[in-house]
């Protein structure tokens, strides 16, 4: 960063450069929406550090140290946690980072880009932000090409707003305001000649800046408040699709619950209407709520019982829920009691309580909600489906936050296998019904899958395992919608065999019902992503629309409703205990002795292998938990070998050589560029590049020194009259305002000779 000479670091220059910070921030804001980037605040703070370092011009070595320290601290905050200034904090992070760099450099050299680890990607992102911070400073005060960056920012946000889930309305307003202020202030800098040696502007021109802010704010406010035309074009996405595919068709509005429009892209999330399932969807990472609990699980919202052949509907049986007298499971089930608090985001709009396991109680003092017309809602539960919510006629009730007590069950497998089959009439009536036109091959498949089972639990486990053992695939993009008259489950089981949670869970419910096993379709959210470890084992979780999920509950008489998870890539969050007697083996004593002898022989062979490996490499440290270390990243103990050391030396040597030759490389770039693109109109730009290279060489302009005086001093230094001649041509260009007297081909040789001297 010492490539730039030090201009006067005035408050005014800092104000202009600070606006660039906010403009670059707009590039980072959408990252959590369309990428898997988290902890955005860490990147913003790192970017702020880089901007301060670049503005203060601390020199290359000090700047490098500060940026590297900030990178390590950022990686520690994102991936490793804990106290940074401790024995197991920053030093351990440095060791991990070194291991990550060495490991991933090998992957890059092998072109295994998909194997690059997240910590290394983040480290590269930090370096990229540092580089961009430097480049923006150069573009702002030297190259003067900042308009391109402003336009690129507008295009960037517009494209994301059009083709992704990013909402760019507020971003465009912020960009317009920031850009007007930035360009206006930069124009003032140019007018007052403060680009290279800002010596006179030591104070901010307050009157000018205040007037500028007033004009920008007033014009923006008028534009924001003024009436606007409705969009004159249809949504550009289907228009582009039509142009590319040659198909002209009318696209209706899409929602998660209305995929019947041809399988267009919906957004994943929780929807009240599940009557039409199918079709692909796009990701939606917007947060729905935050939860704090010491026992996480699937967040249950509601279930539905009527399968129509295309989706789900529900019979309602709302009753007073003051005491939650409609439990999910009976007292014979082992359950532990836990507490949780849920806080919805401003964008979420739910009247249902989401809870893991079985809700026991809601702390009314913690309950916060919004309701139309100041009414008071009632606690009601759906006795058929286990959902609990706030209701008040047709009024809209929106939950804000609540604290609750819930039970987390643990089901005994033997108890489930021995459960009777005499279901209550009400359960049989509501939870075994199927459409009359369901294809018979669905029931035949259920019989085939469960052949050899003699109890309800094994039947459910067999169907659950069927989806994960056969050639089914989890797919969210290319998921077809059933044709008219085609059954949703039949299409999935026998034709497409690809889909997401709705396909798998609905199919399992239907397969079970063909066997007269009561089952229902449940939806809610998965556990969410852990954000922070709090006191007493409590963790804070973030649950987003991407966590929307559906699963299956099966009824067992005298036990209750038991969850099952058929979707590929998901694991049931409910604990199932195996009877210790069931897993014990009846092996005679002779077999025990034979097994023991074989085990002893294997242990002896293993010890010999370990001893030989230790003799071969005594210096290589070992890890006691290899699998965990692999999951967490590349440890500090696996990278130190001859190959990594050699690669590190080569990389460091390359960096040192490139740094020492930086002026020559930059000069070579200027030579090549202006040989190809140089012409009379670019003479002024080429002259300024020459001034910049002379500053880098150490030939600084003194305060108050004119360009002619400076040119004479340069010519004396290099024993050539070239600089005075080029300066005369530059002054004619600046004061005359025309290029008629210029001849780039004539002056190019003089300019190149001086540039070579400056970059040598």
UniProtKB/TrEMBL annotation:
The chain crosses the membrane at residues 12-28, 40-71, 78-99, 119-139, 146-164, 170-188, 208-226, 639-659. Keywords: Membrane, Transmembrane, Transmembrane helix. Residues 585-631 have a biased composition (Acidic residues). The keyword Ion transport does not apply. Pfam families: DUF4129, Transglut_core. It comes from the Bacteria. PANTHER family: PROTEIN-GLUTAMINE GAMMA-GLUTAMYLTRANSFERASE. Residues 493-568 form the Transglutaminase-like domain. It comes from Texcoconibacillus texcoconensis. This is Transglutaminase-like domain-containing protein. Residues 585-632 are annotated as: Disordered. SMART domains: TGc.
